[in-house]
Amino acid sequence: MFYQLLKYIVLGPLLRLVFRPRVEGLEHVPEEGAAIIAGNHLSFADHFVMPAIVPRRVTFLAKAEYFTGPGLKGRLTAAFFRGVGQIPIDRSGGQASQAAISSGLAVLRKGRLLGIYPEGTRSHDGRLYKGRTGVAAMALRAGVPVVPCAMIGTFEAQPTGRRLPRAMRITIRFGAPLDFSRYAGLVDERTALRAVTDEIMYAILQLSGQEYVDVYAGEAKAAAQTEAKARAHGRRGNGDRN
Questions:
Q1: What superfamily in CATH does domain 1-215 come from?
Q2: What is the per-residue pLDDT for 161?
Q3: 173 forms bridges with which residues in the sheet?
Q4: Which of 57, 78, 164, 222 has the most neighbouring CB atoms within 10 Å?
Q5: pLDDT, tens digit, for every residue of 202-239?
Q6: What is the pLDDT of residue 54?
Q7: What whole-number distance in Å separates Cα of residue 237 and Cα of residue 70?
Q8: What is the rounded CA–CA span in Å between residue 206 and residue 148?
Q9: What is this structure's pTM?
């Protein structure tokens, strides 16, 4: 009920007004049955804009931090994400990754659409980063197609650190479903998981036109932050000497 209220009465119309989304390839999203929608991740707004225009309900795997914030704001944020059907996942790796895969498979077994960002986190600079293999594991175990999706313009509308988005037109582009049945039985093979993931990322790249970086987004973001701190420290040191 809360999901329908947000999608059709409150949030959906507002997002269409702010972003005036141009939608391409929506016919590629299955009208029924389980499937994964795998997209690039450029903005906080991505969580809401794409589900608002897909006729069917899309359940996303969202980072656990959205559900554990302190104070009233944290509780409201958690309630909102649960209300729109987001599932919290721990991104620390290891057993946490297996738990995330299990959560995604539970959604797919119910014949629903699962939304996932293979990069694992938002791009800090607008480029497309290396995909993590969880999306491949879910696709092979559930035997479902993967629909590649590209968000275009959301980075400019609301980059990391910007609280409110700019009002501007964006594009949401869906590609033809990818069939990985030829990899049946290879879900435990790392080379197969990497091959499937890379094929998904290539399809997203073809749709988005982004520059691709063969590094995980989290690692690139951490390196950029370290470099920024080093530059700031150097500037302070030069100021002290002056």
A1: Glycerol-3-phosphate (1)-acyltransferase (3.40.1130.10)
A2: 83
A3: 24, 150
A4: 78
A5: 999 999 999 999 999 989 999 988 888 888 777 666 66
A6: 94
A7: 36
A8: 10
A9: 0.88
